[in-house]
Structures are given as structure tokens and as C-alpha cells.
Prior knowledge:
Blueprint: H1 7-19, E1 21-23, E2 31-42, H2 57-68, H3 74-78, H4 87-97, H5 103-112, H6 114-120, H7 127-132, E3 134-135, E4 141-142, H8 144-154, E5 162-164, E6 180-188, E7 193-204, H9 209-227, E8 230-244, H10 248-255, E9 264-267, E10 282-285
Parallel strand pairs: 7-8
Antiparallel strand pairs: 1-2, 2-8, 3-4, 5-6, 6-7, 9-10
Helix pairs in contact: 1-10, 2-9, 5-6
Amino acid sequence: MSEHPEQQYLQLLRYLIDSGDERIDRTGVGTRARFGHEMRFNLEDGFPLFTTKRVYWKTAFKEMLWMLSGGDNIRQLLEQNVRIWTDWPLKHYRKETNEDLSQEEFEARILGDDNFARQWGKLGPVYGKQWRRWSTADGGEIDQVQKVLDDLKSNPTSRRILWDGWNVAELDDMALPPCHKHYQFYVNQSEGKLCGAMVQRSADAFLGLAWNIANLALVTHLIAKQTGYQPGEIVWFGMDVHLYLNHIEQAKTQISREPYALPTLEVDPAVESLFDYTIDHLNVVNYRSHAAIAGDVAV
Length: 299
């Protein structure tokens, strides 16, 4: 019997707990880290939504769809009850105004005041802006995601079917430089399958990595459907892969659990454009998981 695909992730957590290089990071929390790690998931074996703790897949998928839309303001997320990006603009607001507004008050003002949202909800030129509107020297813009779709249809053996978010000239203007910075796609010609890979410069192994894997699988599924291929394999490459010191006990709990069978992903076949998908077009079937495990975000 082959090993459950999720064991790759649990083994990574165990390595970080037992052998990770302990360092103080920019947040001051401290981590145990490893430089360079790879995981592979065959999408025929199930959708890699991890089961040893509850992963809130709708929130994760909403974030990926927001990025694919070119979004760069938390208002677009808050309208969908997604609050995972609020910490950064709220921290900036408090620093600039010396007003100790609560998160609830801040989010309410973002949702209720157009001018406030424009000024304080902006995240800068983050993921979606780079993916869909990369600025050129002559004042133009490049839609990298659309180019991937076009290349998969017209030149599927190209080694340049990719998009990147690491725009050096605009890093200082971003609320957070991209962690999952590089996506690349490969067509297995003999099998008619689309494979997707992602390079992640910085990976929060306990809190964020399960989302990153699920979203890489999601975008590979969606692009495959829009370009006429079957989903194949995804490959995740982590560079600075770390476990925050205040997540060690939670990670120990997680690795003590046995994974359940992976679920499957259903995608509405009627959607004609990658950019028209909403959460209502997606469904994860037969997702059984252990209970959620809470952990604080290091900002």
C-alpha cells in the first residue's frame, strides 16, 4: 500500500520540530527552519486538502480567486467575509494615525466608506496586481495569467509558461512581498495532462502551507479545464520553510493524527473563463478532517 500523500507534509513538520535551524525572524517570534524542500501530489489521487486539521477551503479558494482577479484591496475580501489580509493595513493605519482602532471597527469602515477603503484598504502592488497588471517601463501593463492561458493553447511545449510576483522595483510598496512568488506550468503531451509548480520563498509550515498547496492544486485544476487538459501533478518548492516557535505544540498535535482519504474537487463545467469563477462554482466533495488547530499569525 502506498504512503498517504499527506505524510509528506507531516514528515516536514516533524523535521522542523526535531532538526530545524532555530532563528529569530523579522516578526520577533522565532522559527525553526529548513532551506529547500519539495513535495509532489498527483491530482488523480485526490485533491490535496490536508485532513489532519480542518482547512477552511472556501476561504483559501476565495483568496486565490481574488488574486486571479487582480485584486489589491482588502475590501474585495471583506465583502466575502475573508479577513486574512486585514492585519497588514490595520497595522499601517494604527502607525500612521496613532488611532487604536479595533479590527472590527476598521473592517466596518472599509466596508462602509468608499474613500476610507481606497486610502486604507489598499495593499499596494501585491500578488494580483503583479499577476494581471505587471507594469512595463513604457507605462503599459502585462497580464501574465492571460499569457499563460494563451501559451498553453498555442505553444504548450514552451518552457516559459509561467507568471511571477517578485517585482523588485515595487517590493517596498507592497504590504507583504509575495511568499508564493513563482508559478510555472508544464503539459505532459503523452497523457494530455497539465502539471503546475510553485516556488515559495517563505513558507509558514503550520499556518499557511496547507492553504498554499490547496490553492496550487485549485489553480492547476482551473487552468487545465480552461485549456483543454486533465489535471496532472503539482510540485511545491519551498525555500525558507519555517515553523514558528509558538506553533510547535500545535504541530506536535497535528503529526500525532492519522490522515483521512483525500477529497475530490468539483468545478462547474459551464464557466467559460478563468476569471469568471466564484466560490459558488467550486465544491470539495467527501472532505473528512480532524478538528481545527488554532495558531496566531506572526505579522
